[in-house]
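User: Last request for today: this protein with thymidine-5'-phosphate, please.
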Amino acid sequence: MKNIKKGELITTGKAKSLYETNEDDFLIMHYRDDTSAFDGKKIESLEGKGTINNKFNAFIMEYLESESISTHFVELLNETDSLVKRLDMAPVECVVRNVAAGSICKRLGLEEGIDINPPTFEFFYKDDALGDPMINEYHIKSFGWATEEQVKQMQIQTFEVNNALKKLFSDAGMILVDYKLEFGDYKGKLLLGDEFTPDGCRVWDEETREKLDKDRFRQGLGDVVESYQIMAKRLGVI
Ligand code: TMP
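Assistant: Here's the final one, the structure of the complex with thymidine-5'-phosphate:
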């Protein structure tokens, strides 16, 4: 888009900031180097993370669009900024899991690394103070966080993303373990919003099962940005 100008800061999240533009329907999403885990209890700035995540997200969103999944992404503006459509976000997180890791292991006493077949789906309520509690679709409807139709669409589209991305990662020698998506309304249509980056998914090397995602930061494994770059290179992002 021509002549887009960055306006006022609207919100500052844990890793991104959102700005108004001179067009009502569009916002600028700015990817920062800040890296957070455990609902913001662990925060560090990792040089180059904003740039790699901005490019990674653009690549995935464009790929999903090519697979007929509608997203808020419009275009890359520079190293750390992307232009997106302004969505009215549902305050819920949609998680699909292909392999057991993270909170489901604790919750259900599962061994990390076992296959989940068929892949499973979970909703979480987006509230750091409450620790993003797991919720079900009745909570979403009862508390007005989304409509019945939006709940259905979030589930359908999150699984469509799984079909598209499982293959993309496996063709590049990686396992898509799990990921989190967020959706919002744009003029009556539900679109994939927020981001798809190594901050919000788990991805392992297919051969060695080495972790390449934000678990490196959560678990203090080191080489966080370097691993994100390895993932990006294998997919052809950079
Ligand atoms: P979990 O195992 O901690 O429930 O996370 C599942 C996936 O969702 C994992 O890839 C990390 C991602 N996620 C986020 O990116 N942000 C969040 O707030 C939560 C709860 C999960």
